Amino acid sequence: QVTLVESGGGLVQPGGSLTLSCAASGGTISSYAMGWVRQAPGKEREFVAGINRSAFATHYGDSVKGRFTIFRHPANNTVTLRMTSLRSEDTATYYCGTSTSTLPMRVASFQSWGQGTQVTVSS
């Protein structure tokens, strides 16, 4: 069972950028498609981004398309989410997940999660 630990969250001003990282241990991310979801207070989890095992295919939620980019780094067993042009509505706890789907496209695509990292976008 892979253990995932997210990091890189924090407070950022609207229009700013932030990069989240997800470190895996106890297994290799090469065995899984990976991705990110987020959850704001009082709201359901929302799909953010997914990447397949080879990194040749990615998929993004409509609300982040063109602003967020997902990468996977097999050499150090991590997945990152580069977030730009951040908005107040991006404020949420962000979770990294593993998926046995070919390319995760929804929250239900994921089987396991990390503990999350908080992102707050505010002036």
What does this structure look like?
- With 123 residues, the protein is an all-beta fold.
- Helices cover 0% and strands 50% of the residues.
- The chain is built from no helices and 11 strands.
- The strands form 2 sheets. Strands 2, 4, 5, 6, 9, 10 and 11 form a 7-stranded mixed sheet that branches.
- The chain starts with a strand and ends with a strand.
- The mean pLDDT is 96.
What keywords describe this structure?
single chain; mainly beta; four-stranded antiparallel beta sheet; 11 strands; 0% helix
Oligomer: single chain
Secondary-structure element series: EEEEEEEEEEE
Give the % helix: under 10%
- Overall average residue pLDDT: 96
- Strand residue percentage: over 45%
- Main beta-sheet strand count, sense and barrel state: 7 strands, mixed
- State the total count of DSSP E strands: 11
Distance between the termini: 40 Å
Radius of gyration from the alpha-carbon trace, in angstroms: 13 Å
At a glance:
With 123 residues, the chain is mainly β.
Outline the secondary-structure elements.
Blueprint (H helix, E strand, L loop, with lengths): L2 E5 L2 E3 L5 E8 L7 E7 L6 E6 L6 E3 L7 E6 L4 E6 L8 E8 L10 E4 L3 E5 L2
